[in-house]
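Box 3.1 A note on notation
Throughout this textbook, protein chains are presented in two layers. The first layer is the amino acid sequence; the second is a token string describing backbone geometry. Keep the layers aligned when reading.
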Amino acid sequence: MTKKGITILEMLISISLVSVVILMFFKVVLNLDNINNNKEYASNDEIARTTIIKEIENDFLNLHLNNLSLNKENNSTTITFKYDNTVKDLIIKEKELIYDNKVYKLNSNNATYDICPLYKYTEIDKDYYLISINILVLIDNKNTTINDDITLNYIGLIKNNNYPKNYTCSK
């Protein structure tokens, strides 16, 4: 005898499976929304940070960096990059970076830049040196992840360089 209907047990199993799939989908959507809005993720500003890193490092490569200086003022720090034929300033403020007269604002809630960049000069060997500048992105005044930080690196020849060997920023 063939039955063409469904039993209550089959109906309960179907409802249970559909409920599990809907709950999993709902959880994924909530997690994605949480990631987009979570204060730990400054992803709204990722394009601006990437753009400024690319612009400065392109200048490092194409304009030949000769020297730099760091100067902290009241609410900002200025890094002056001296190239062969030009000088460009990177101004670090709490909610924005200014480079070559272009403003890159931080839009994420609770996100700020640390106006005291971390600067490191390292001699790699007798011929080369590495300069690293790290601008921290703070979430609620804490550096929660290095993925959001702006890190600039420059490798050059040791001969004829006048770079600061160290820099300490007073907060």
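Strands lie at 65-72, 77-83, 87-92, 96-99, 102-105, 111-113, 118-123, 128-135, 137-139, 150-157. Residues 43-157 form one domain.
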